[in-house]
Design goal:
alpha/beta
Length: 124
């Protein structure tokens, strides 16, 4: 499954409340929908909302590892909330890389990092 959260246009709702209102009104249903997804991408959501999504995932799936990937200062709270945070050094600066567990220079290095991480930390 794939879940993409998109905020309505500014004219219909304020920036900070769009996606968070959804799970506050329908909390358990939203959490169940998130549990069925392998990947969640937040599109045009605030840094606070990114952090709240990670918090919900960790609360409702305590046995799973939540990975957050970010490339700028707006992703720092989300990265700190996740079990594993990956920061990408780039045009937006190094704040995400400094706040993360792992820092990489480009997205292309993500696949080898995840492979090594899974091999090291999931094998018995």
């Amino acid at each position: 499954f794939f879940l993409m959260i998109r905020r309505p246009p500014r004219s219909t709702q304020s920036r900070s409340s769009a996606a968070s209102d959804v799970y506050k009104r329908q909390g358990k249903q939203f959490a169940k929908l998130m549990e069925r997804c392998e990947v969640m991408i937040g599109c045009r959501v605030s840094p606070k909302q990114k952090q709240e999504f990670v918090k919900i995932l960790r609360k409702n799936m305590p046995n799973d590892v939540v990975l957050a990937i970010g490339d700028g200062a707006n992703d720092v709270n989300m990265i700190n909330e996740a079990n594993v945070g990956v920061g990408i050094k780039g045009v937006e600066g190094h704040q995400a890389a400094r706040a993360s567990d792992f820092a990489i220079g480009e997205f292309k290095f993500l696949k080898p990092l995840l492979l090594c991480y899974c091999l090291l930390y999931t094998s018995d």
